[in-house]
Design goal:
The complex is a heterotrimer of chains A (181), B (171) and C (344). Chain A is α+β, with helices and mostly antiparallel strands and 181 residues long. In chain A, 25% of the residues lie in helices and 13% in strands. Chain A has a domain of 115 residues: Alpha-Beta Plaits (2-Layer Sandwich), CATH 3.30.70.3270. In chain A, the strands form two sheets. In chain A, strands 2-3-5 form a three-stranded antiparallel beta sheet. The longest helix of chain A has 15 residues. The radius of gyration of chain A is 28 Å and the shape is elongated. Chain B has eight helices and no strands. In chain B, helix 1 packs antiparallel against helix 2 and helix 2 runs antiparallel to helix 3. The model of chain B has no long low-confidence stretch (mean pLDDT 81). Chain C has one domain. In chain C, strand 1 and strand 2 form a beta hairpin. Classes of the chains: A alpha+beta (181), B mainly alpha (171), C mainly alpha (344). Chains B and C meet through helix 2 and helix 3 of B and helix 4, helix 5 and helix 6 of C. Chain C: Pfam families: NADHdh. Chain C: Its EC number is 7.1.1.-.
Chain lengths: 181, 171, 344
């Protein structure tokens, strides 16, 4: 069977150049039909969602801005292994590792930590592969609606640790809730 | 009241007619001619012939002048495109125009008698289209039909000119 | 002349002007709403309840916009174009009978600015010069797109005027009068002209679409080819005048269709209402009936606009010259023969 006679979708229509009959030629019937179609649409349910008052629900697998998590003692989980940077298809992540000193025990969970951790939000495609690659469950893509604010300068789109690490208050709140449960 | 209106209208008619001739820009000329036609329609209405006034606006301002403007806009006439005519042609044209004008003036002067209008005696509404139609198709049916034939001929002629010459294609 | 007549007419003119403006304003809102509904949207709903103040917001925006002037040697004509478009759009309303005679203050008051005995001709005359505003504005813009649009508008108007006039002659043969008031009076009850002249009505309706420059005949202002056509160079309230004139035209041509073919202010049971409730109340209902008819036709205009795609230029000319004019002539001849047969 050649492709000319075969229709995958079953909706293939042959173009016909047959002569129009008189009733078709004056188009009035076709125009009336079309107008009935639009009339029907006038009374259909509207698809508009009036935005600020109503919002569409996010998908369950929505992936928003990244966050570097803290553990229940408020210490950063990241150990700067570089797997996230390696898995990133857009090469948006870069980091510099440093060794934890004795007086930093309360700050970092692992012996090695990320001194600098940067995500270029202009490159990031929010695929979530970094989240999957992370062995320490340190990086997560949050449900946050805010992704990156509009800006003139490209430098402001490179998010450092100041913007990525989970705020300490949030960590404290989390721990409190866990203890209560 | 009517006299004042007449003088205002006449000033507009003559002024715009003069401006039609004096304007450098052909579009401005055409527009002044439209103004002139409108004021002539005003004269008709002053003379209590509303039908003529309306038809005048319809035919002259509404159809002929729009077509004229249309052609002028299409042709994109400029001063640089204007063909300069020799001096003698201009002189002869002026003289010819003056002679024709004199002739027309003398005819209208001779024919200018005061008619005793007898609207009231007839008891008929001479503005009405019905009366006008009856007069046109009874007393003046011959000239009326002749004008119709003339217009038809002009139309056929226009169609013939605009038709493509088919013999060229064959050859 | 009677002083009361002057006062009557002045009041009627002012009221008709105000109502036309109001209807034109709200026609812009209606257009946007209907477009939205047809496309399964809601339409403007922020300004006022359900968007009722949207026309005011639009007007305010237009007033506040910067006035720009193209580099044209015809500054006067550039300003004159929108003015002329608006004036000619409003002039037609003079002969439309908005209602039957009222009995007030011990005399009859006609709800019509002027009962010309050549009313029908007056309408055709004003419609035929209606394109001047667009043409002058387009030419004075000194812009090639605008010029093309002006030329398109002119040729379209000339072509469709003929069919329109011919379809009206069919009506004229039946009514035997050119006066709009008498045409309205003849259609008492359900004796509407549309039942006797359906083909003429259809031709008139199609030509009205073309004469008001509305889709599917809005070739003069198509965005895709002519970037807005004659109002490309216009901004601020001059642009607003052009748009407003279009909607005023829409309202008035709906009014003309209602008066000529759909029985004007007549409604079934009007004579009964006159007997039982008095002339004035019956007339008020009549005015409402006329406005319902007008609103229906405004709706039809918009409905067609958001259904049918725009014509191609050659299709437009073919429809006008090869279909509508012969059809109108046929309608005219058939009407004449039928009238002759009935009379004998």
């Amino acid at each position: 069977m050649s492709t000319n006679t075969y229709s995958l979708s079953g909706r293939k229509k042959e173009v016909s150049n047959k002569k129009l009959t008189w009733t078709e030629k004056i188009y009035l019937v076709a125009i009336l039909k079309g107008m009935m179609v639009t009339l029907k649409h006038m009374f259909k349910k509207k698809v508009t969602i009036s935005y600020p008052e109503k919002t569409r629900p996010f998908s369950d697998v929505y992936r928003g801005k990244h966050m570097l998590m803290r553990d229940d003692e408020g210490r950063e989980r990241c150990t700067a292994c570089g797997l996230c940077a390696l898995s990133c298809p857009a090469e948006a992540i870069s980091m510099k590792a440093a060794e934890r000193t004795a007086d930093e025990m309360h700050l970092y969970r692992e012996e090695k930590y990320a001194e600098i951790y940067e995500i270029n939000m202009l490159r990031c495609i929010f695929c979530g592969l970094c989240e999957e690659a992370c062995p320490k469950q340190a990086i997560y893509l949050t449900k946050s609606k805010q992704i990156a604010k509009a800006d003139i300068s490209r430098d402001n789109f490179i998010f450092g640790k100041d913007k990525l690490v989970m705020p300490l208050e949030a960590a404290i709140e989390n721990t409190k809730q866990q203890n209560q449960a | 009241m009517v006299e004042i209106l007449f003088y205002i209208l006449s000033t507009i008619t003559l002024g715009s007619a003069a401006l039609t001739l004096l304007s450098k820009n052909p579009i401005h000329s055409a527009l002044w001619l439209v103004v002139s036609f409108f004021s002539i329609a005003g004269h008709y209405i002053l003379l209590n012939s509303q039908f003529l006034g309306m038809v005048h606006i319809m035919v002259y301002s509404g159809a002929i002048m729009i077509l004229m403007l249309f052609t002028i806009m299409l042709m994109n006439l400029n001063i640089s495109h204007e063909v300069s005519k020799p001096f003698i042609t201009k002189v002869v044209a002026t003289i010819a125009f003056c002679l024709v004008g004199l002739l027309l003036l003398s005819i209208t002067m001779r024919g200018a008698q005061t008619y005793e209008l007898q609207y009231a005696n007839h008891g008929e509404d001479f503005q009405s289209v019905q009366v006008l139609g009856k007069v046109l198709l009874n007393e003046y049916v011959m000239p009326f039909e002749m004008v119709a034939v003339l217009l038809l001929l002009a139309m056929i002629g226009a169609v013939l000119i605009s038709k493509k010459d088919k013999t060229d294609k064959v050859a | 002349m009677d002083k009361t007549i002057i006062i009557d007419k002045a009041v009627i003119i002012v009221v008709v002007f105000a109502v036309t403006m109001l209807m034109a304003m709200y026609a812009t809102l209606a257009e946007r709403k209907i477009a939205a509904w047809i496309q399964d949207r809601i339409g403007p709903n922020r300004a006022g309840k359900g968007g009722l103040l949207q026309p005011l917001a639009d007007g305010l925006k237009l007033f506040a916009k910067e006035e720009t002037q193209p580099n044209t040697p015809n500054k006067f004509l550039f300003k004159f174009g929108p003015f002329l478009a608006m004036t000619l759009a409003l002039m037609t309303s003079a002969v439309i009978p908005w209602g039957d005679k009222f009995h007030l203050f011990g005399r009859d008051i006609e709800l019509q600015a002027a009962d010309l005995n050549v009313g029908l001709l007056y309408i055709i005359a004003v419609l035929s010069v209606g394109v001047y505003g667009i043409m002058i504005g387009a030419w004075a813009s000194n812009n090639k797109y605008s010029l093309m649009s002006g030329i398109r508008a002119a040729s379209q108007m000339i072509s469709y005027e003929i069919a329109m006039g011919l379809s009206l002659i069919g009506l004229l043969l039946m009514t035997q009068t050119l006066s709009m008031r008498e045409i309205a009076l003849q259609q008492e009850g359900m004796n509407w002209n549309v039942f006797y002249q359906p083909v003429g009505f259809l031709i008139f309706l199609i030509c009205s679409f073309a004469e008001t420059n509305r889709a599917p005949f809005d070739l003069a202002e198509c965005e895709q080819e002519l970037i807005g056509g004659f109002h490309t160079e216009y901004s601020s309230m001059k642009m607003g005048f052009f748009l407003f004139a279009e909607y005023a035209n829409l309202f008035i041509s709906s009014a003309i269709i209602s008066v000529l073919y759909f029985g004007a202010y007549n409604y079934p049971g009007m004579s009964w209402a006159v007997e039982n409730w008095g002339v004035n109340i019956a007339n008020v209902i009549g005015i409402f009936a006329l406005f319902i008819k007008i609103c229906f036709f405004i709706f039809v205009y918009m409905w067609v606009r958001w259904t049918l795609p725009r014509f191609r230029y050659d299709q437009l000319m073919n429809l006008g010259w090869k279909s509508l004019i012969p059809l109108a002539l046929l309608n005219l001849v058939v009407t004449a023969i039928v009238i002759l047969l009935i009379k004998n």
